[in-house]
Design a protein that fits this description.
- With about 325 residues, the chain is α+β, with helices and mostly antiparallel strands.
- It folds into 3 domains: about 50 residues; about 100 residues, SH3 type barrels (Roll); about 140 residues, no CATH class.
- Helices cover about 30% and strands about 35% of the residues.
- Strand 14 and strand 15 form a beta hairpin.
- The longest helix has about 50 residues.
């Protein structure tokens, strides 16, 4: 019995040794695997951080910031201009051209839009930005517009509108004030702009009346030079001096733009109306038949004046109507 037990005990010793060896191998393998896993994780973490701190990536990151700064309007001498529509209906076009199938929407009088503009250097007498960078913003008499304030050169516009149907914010206050009455509210934006651009004469500022009783009598339309295009005349007032100034605008046959053809100031308030072609009037104390429409001005103690276009001199001749 004793021998048997000893024999079994002796037989077990090699098995225990094998077990210890196996466990040792497994432990070593585990340590190696853990070390390998740990080293791999450490390597991954380094790889995740490393690109952010390498010299090349630092330069790339700096370039990225510089590139973004280069795209900013303010960094290039430009700014976003706040503007308002002065036309009753301003058409928005997909591209800057007159094609009717290019119209995508319209804007009403008083709608706010933004445009990209260049700062003017008052001291240097030039512009602060390279205007070629905004070459696509203004073409063929159309300007790119934005619903929200653009901050970058790369910001894309919502469309294009005519450069004649909007003004900057500081100018719009006058448009809103002086074109509020019904006789003036629906004037074409070209007429509105022509009036505002010519409201200062001989060191005196003149304005459209805000008196609703007077407003029906201060603006008239007709073909005053006989070219088949509509022209207009307007009376502007200076309330402080109680002066009136008459302005007659003709329409350029090629551009269809109004231009100032006659202006004179008087020391009283006046009214105007159109006397149509073929009407009989007085000229040199004799009856005279008009060959074009003419402008009649009345008011104050002045004799009514008829302004007739003379094709030989390309001037308006005032004729007293006694």
């Amino acid at each position: 019995m004793e021998n048997t037990t000893n024999s079994q005990s002796l037989d077990n010793k090699p098995n225990n040794s094998k077990l210890y060896i196996a466990l040792g191998i497994l432990a070593a393998a585990g340590i190696a695997a853990g070390a390998y896993f740990f080293m791999n994780n450490e390597e991954k973490e380094i790889k995740a951080i490393e690109p952010a701190i390498t010299v090349n990536d630092t330069i790339a990151k700096t370039d990225s910031i510089t590139s973004e700064e280069k795209d900013l309007l303010e960094k290039n001498g430009f700014y976003a201009s706040e503007n308002y529509i002065i036309a009753n209906k301003a058409l928005i076009r997909r591209t800057p051209n007159e094609a009717q199938n290019n119209v995508i929407d319209s804007l009403k009088f008083g709608t706010k839009v933004y445009t990209k503009s260049v700062y003017f250097d008052e001291e240097g007498g030039g512009t602060n930005g390279d205007e070629t960078l905004l070459a696509n913003e203004k073409k063929n008499g159309f300007v790119a517009i934005y619903n929200t304030k653009p901050t970058k050169l790369s910001d894309q516009p919502v469309g294009y509108i005519s450069e004649k149907v909007f003004v900057e914010q500081y100018e719009f206050e006058s448009y809103k004030k002086y074109f509020s009455l019904k006789e003036f509210a629906f004037l074409d934006s070209k007429i509105k702009k022509a009036i505002m651009d010519n409201s200062y004469f001989e060191n005196v500022s003149y304005y459209l009346t805000q008196n609703s009783q007077r407003s029906p009598y201060v603006l008239c339309k007709g073909d005053y030079d006989g070219d088949g295009l509509k022209d207009f005349a307007v009376i502007l007032d200076n309330v402080e001096k109680e002066y009136s100034s008459i302005l007659i605008f003709l329409t350029n046959k090629v551009t269809k733009e109004p231009y100032l053809a006659y202006r004179k100031a008087y020391t009283d308030y006046f009214k105007v109306k159109t006397v149509t072609k073929s009407s009989s009037v007085i000229k040199d104390s004799e009856p005279f038949v008009l060959t074009t429409d003419a402008v009649m001005m009345t008011g104050g103690e002045y004799t009514p004046q008829l302004f007739v276009y003379d094709r030989d001199t390309n001037k308006f001749i005032p004729i007293s109507q006694e």
